[in-house]
Design a protein that fits this description.
By secondary structure, the chain is mainly α. It has helices at residues 2-42, 49-73, 77-99, 106-130. It has one domain. The protein contains four helices and no strands. Keywords: Membrane, Transmembrane, Transmembrane helix. This is Integral membrane protein.
């Protein structure tokens, strides 16, 4: 009985950590959209169409990830797997886009690397949860 309680407690801690990372991710996404909006007015060359497309897609995942985490908290293994897979896609996409020459302005490359690091941590905690 104690092992079941201990496992549930560890599981809750891992999911809480993932939740914190996703909240940071959402703040970064909202901030990025705000910066893009401001730059579109004052320095349009710093807010190209590619940056907007990237930001909107990343914002879409900022809606989906917390919903999947909520299902994972209710015990859905598939939802937890989805969180890990989405995080892996975001990690890969952000790394690739950050290293593509002339894809995005420098400030956004920093944001992309930051999101990649957050997603690497999400993957780490999903993997720990699955073990």
């Amino acid at each position: 009985m104690d092992q079941v309680v201990e496992k549930a407690s560890r599981s809750s801690i891992q999911l809480d950590r993932i939740g914190i990372l996703l909240r940071i991710y959402i703040v970064a996404v909202v901030a990025t959209l705000g910066v893009l909006a401001a730059l579109s007015v004052v320095a349009p060359q710093q807010a190209p169409r590619e940056a907007w497309v990237h930001a909107v897609i990343v914002a879409g995942f900022a809606i989906v990830l917390p919903l999947r985490l909520r299902s994972a908290r209710r015990g859905s293994v598939g939802a937890l797997r989805a969180v890990g897979l989405i995080a892996a896609v975001l990690l890969l996409a952000n790394v690739v886009e950050a290293i593509l020459p002339d894809f995005a302005p420098g400030w956004m490359r920093v944001e992309m690397v930051g999101i990649a690091v957050l997603m690497a941590l999400v993957i780490f905690f999903v993997a720990r949860e699955r073990m």
